[in-house]
Amino acid sequence: MEMPSRQLIPTLMPEWTPSSHQSYKTADDSASPPITPTSQVSSFDSSLSQMKPTYSTIIEENIDTILDRIRPFVKKITASEQNKKTINQYTLGASAGSGQFGHVRKAYSSTLNKVVAIKIIPKKPWNAQQYSMNQVMRQIQLWKSKGKITKNMSGNEAMRLMNIGKCRWEIYAVSRLRDSVHVVRLIECLDSPFSESIWIVSDWCNLGELQWKRDNYGDILPQWQRLVPFKCSVSTFSKKILRDMTKGLQYLHSQGCIHRDIKPSNILLDEIENVAKISDFGCCIFTPQLLPFKSANFEECFQRELNKIVGTPAFIAPELCHLGNSKRDFVTDGFKLDIWSLGVTLYCLLYNELPFSGDNEFDTYHKIMEAPLSLKVNGSTLNDLIIKRLLEKDATLRIGIQDLTKIILPDPMDQPEHPKDIDQDILSKIKPTRSEGPVRRFFGKLITKKSKKKTLENVKDNSFGSANSKATAPVYIDADSQEEAFSSTVLRSSPNSSDYCSSLEEEVVQVTDFLNTFCDSKGSANILHVKNDKRNTEMKVEKSDSSSHSSFKVPTPIKALIRLKNSPVENRNKSYDNRFSDELTSPSKKSAKEKHRVYNPEPKKLAHSGNIINFKAYINSADKDRQEMVEDVRTYLNFADNGQA
Ligand SMILES: Nc1ncnc2c1ncn2[C@@H]1O[C@H](COP(=O)(O)OP(=O)(O)OP(=O)(O)O)[C@@H](O)[C@H]1O
């Protein structure tokens, strides 16, 4: 009897499924009607012919080079069990957690004789909102215009191919970054024309992702203790992370790689190698000079790509937060984006809170651009290095990776005991040399004159980036003796708990909810069971939800909000009513809200992302105030789509 032929699923290696670029049908695809380019996307036809090349289209044009690079790492799935206990030489173990795109499991490799991590990424994204309809249609049109597809293609199939393309890029990136202990090392990838998922095998980091959220500022998390067993404190642990991440970013810099999503959940800790490692290269880009292909417009496209908002809102650098309200590109040095995000990460460790956290993305961006941190300068070297040099809002004044390396890399044991011994040359590196120039702010329209005035006054009063400002402490990274002074300042400047909780809650609402991540859906993801491979004891690591801020892996985050089905009017009233009743009933909340009011627009304006959810109704609204906002949102969407105002 003739066996029915199995459907081939597109793979990382196109040659494994020769028809994968062609249209084909699978059972699940029939559920969604195919997108017919002639009827539904005709509006793209004219724009497509004028479509400018982009960084990603240049990458796609050079896909053969990418494939040649990843080919040695991609192995065929030859054996797997139905019950998913084994795949090839790997025995699968406990779940380590989930991200937006995949699920990570611990596994044992019988050939390497060691524990590894396997990220399992469904080829067909489980979250349909991962790619917007626009993106999918545009992509189909692009493939058609380039002759890569000849028949109509369903949205599901297109999304699958886009997802596979995304995996190829990530695998390409990590395959180029295998020579540093500070980057999670790729071992290999598994795939087959019959597999619904791509399996990416990498080194196991037994302590999991970097945790920073704790009940009390002074608490030392078990994970920290394991990485810094001797004299572990907030300060010594932060120094360890600073040092390891500086080495990691220095390595990325040498390879021309800008990560664009540095944050605690993308930093994994390994007790065996005693090191913190950078992971998750899904958002990264390489400088054209260090890519093995040339294109006439590459540099220009790279600059445009650099100016797109990619990353996680709370960790995005101020030069990206202008939201396109400028005729010129703000980001010229992409590596400084990662330095800023590292600064935010270290701030979280030091202060047990995010430095900039708003009621919605706009508010967060506004705070990132405007809210000063000068009150946090306290004379402690580590603290002031982070506050003054890593979290310097002016990217041209922000410390670069080379200078940071010079400061950090000497072995801590060689550091002089007293600040006065510090080399004057190093000292000068912590001092900003000129003040931040005036920037026309997009958010001028979003805030009341009064609040803006107050904000700017704060910036002025507290500016530590001015030419007159003095560095209050020398660079002295391992000054343990300064920890006391630092701790007390932290305690003094810490917000009260209700204030603090409210800001955190607001933060995690931002993107994770909209993108419908499946994280935690099974409850098990909250507790990460980590086998201590070194000592062979089982330990539990509490996974801090608050440390896991999802990044925009889609280029237009606001569009994700718009797709939700809420009434803006209802929402606005509701949030306003809640706000009002909070103020009546809770004095502590009231003070927190009052503090927020400095930066918050009045409730009629864009006080919450929910206000713009029903975008169509919003656009058509006759309300003048709202019409003004529509222009802002349009500008933003245009910027998010095209990288242009
Ligand atoms: N190499 C590894 N070793 C140990 N644990 C890992 C490893 N890689 C990932 N994990 C764990 O699995 C979790 C999910 O990882 P993943 O990279 O999918 O998601 P994420 O980075 O948190 O989110 P996203 O991809 O959405 O940004 C991580 O938070 C981490 O705890």
Automatic annotation (TrEMBL):
PROSITE patterns linked: PROTEIN_KINASE_DOM, PROTEIN_KINASE_ST
InterPro entries membership: Kinase-like_dom_sf, Prot_kinase_dom, Ser/Thr_kinase_AS
Record keywords: ATP-binding, Kinase, Nucleotide-binding, Serine/threonine-protein kinase, Transferase
Record domain Protein kinase: where: 90-421
Region Disordered: start-end pairs: 1-46, 571-605
Biased composition (Basic and acidic residues): 571-582
Top-level taxon of the source organism: Eukaryota
A matching Pfam family: Pkinase
PANTHER family: CALCIUM/CALMODULIN-DEPENDENT PROTEIN KINASE KINASE-RELATED, SERINE_THREONINE-PROTEIN KINASE TOS3
Protein name: Protein kinase domain-containing protein
Organism of origin: Saccharomyces eubayanus
